[in-house]
Amino acid sequence: MNNKEIILRFSADRAFAYRAGQPIYPTQLFADLARTAQLVGSTDGDILVTCKGRYEFSVALLCIWSCGKNVILPPNLHRTTLDHVRKQHCITSELKDGFSDAANVTANCADKKIFELRFSNDQPALTIYTSGSTGAPKPVVKSIGNMFAEALALKASFAWPDKALVASVPPHHLYGLTFSVLLPWVLGTPLVNECPLHAEEVVDAIKQVNAGTLISVPVHLRALLDQQFNSRPDMVISSAGSLDSVIAERWQQRFGQQIVEVFGSSETGVIACRRQLSDTCWAAFPEVSIASSDDGLLQVTSPFINASEGESFQTQDLVSIQQQSAFLLHGRADSIVKIAGKRVSLLSIENTIKSCKGVLDAAVTAVPVQGYIRDMAIWAAVSTGEKSGINARSIRAQLLSLLDGIEVPRRIVVLKQLPRAESGKLHKEQLMALFEKDIQS
Q: Measured between alpha carbons, how far is 178 from 46 in angstroms, rounded to an integer?
């Protein structure tokens, strides 16, 4: 592999993916690539990819890139979102579920044939969108070089199990795309087509293929702690949100392993990682250079950032640089608010609420209020699952001894489950709608 070219090689006798527990080999993959090329080869514009299965998603991306074209990935698959995305780009074709029309899975090839694909680093790869959890989804451009530099850096950073990979996050966001699609390609390990979201489904998916790696988010990992595992993955990755220390501790106590947390963004790709029970700081990946602005915001320079973002990218994350490649993360700038003249961390309050007895998940916001002392008040949405006897009063009673007075939520809405997206994110608009609904009910 040289600096100007990416070469992917797949051995014919090793499964590329699993679908419904059945292996799919490179012979099938390359037959589907050839068939799909007939669909997209004659189009001139960008191609929208909306298929959900990770195998067809792989076929779509590999074929589109082999044809020298650009992929558009929407932030979600809602009809209004797709209509908006179609208006923003010159889209001449769309690959939906079932586009490959491949019903049969080929048998294992007896020979040792190697299938190969080549891409130029400079070639445009895709336009992906931010999650929109802190505002409107923003388009982010990536090249082939950006995408594969990140996947190859991850390959070199950890001792990955030589087994199939299961992910409970969709491939349309950068976290799911990088870790559950590109990473298996460069590792040469099979990816699992399905995207299980419920804890029981995740356990079944791991057992079905004896998966070695699980790519997930904190809210899913918390639910998994209540499940019985016949087989468990050797490597567990968490991202797209803060991992509660209680989850980290319980996971290690039960399984004897630490969850690897990865921190990053759509614009920057991966930035740093940690195992929070043994690491005091976040450690930047070797390819990533970090600094902080005068107001403490993280500045990132890495090959995973597209040139369209400039030489470096400044996030909205507050950090303290500890040494050349390590930092403490204090939350997003918009998660630090002033109430009665005091700086208050919404993330800290959120984590404290999650530690309360009976609480499974929580989301916190600050809203303007009119008062003699306070000009902002904390509101919290809390999920308790099916547990009875847990209400706003009992949660507030626990918080009175854990938080300062101004940090205790003025309003608490209790639900069975928070309406998080498949990526584990909860959009600000959805959070505020919960309080509006509570007022009307």
A: 20
Q: Tell me which H or E stretch contains 411.
A: strand 411-415
CATH number of 5-241: 3.40.50.12780
To which residue do tokens 């404290």 refer? Answer: 352
Task: Quote the pTM value.
Answer: 0.84
Please report, for the chain, the start and end positions of each structural domain, with discontinuous segments joined by +: 5-241, 340-440
Laid out side by side, the sheet with 71-72 consists of 91-95, 46-49, 71-72, 124-129, 139-143
Strands 213-216 and 235-238: parallel
Q: What per-residue confidence (pLDDT) applies to 428?
A: 79
Helix (H, G, I), strand (E, B) or coil at 66: helix
Q: Is residue 354 within 8 Å of 362, Cβ to Cβ?
A: yes
Which pLDDT does position 344 carry in this prediction?
A: 85
Report which DSSP code applies to 308.
G
**Nearest CA to 329 among 279, 365, 371, 379?**
279
Question: What tens digit of pLDDT does each residue of 248-264 get?
Answer: 999 999 999 999 999 99
Q: What angle do CA 29, 154, 233 make, to 5 degrees?
A: 75
3-class DSSP state of 91: strand
Q: Phi and psi (nearest 5°) for 330?
A: -105, 5
For 317-371, write each residue's pLDDT tens digit: 999 999 889 999 988 887 888 787 778 888 889 889 988 988 888 999 988 876 6
Q: Is 241 left (phi over 0), alpha (psi -120 to 50) or beta?
A: left
- Rounded CA-CA distance 85/80 in Å is 9
CATH 3.30.300.30 fits 340-440, yes or no: yes
Beta-carbon contacts of residue 55 (< 8 Å; ≥ 6 apart): 16, 17, 19, 24, 191, 193
What is the Cα–Cα distance from 163 to 166, expressed in whole angstroms?
10
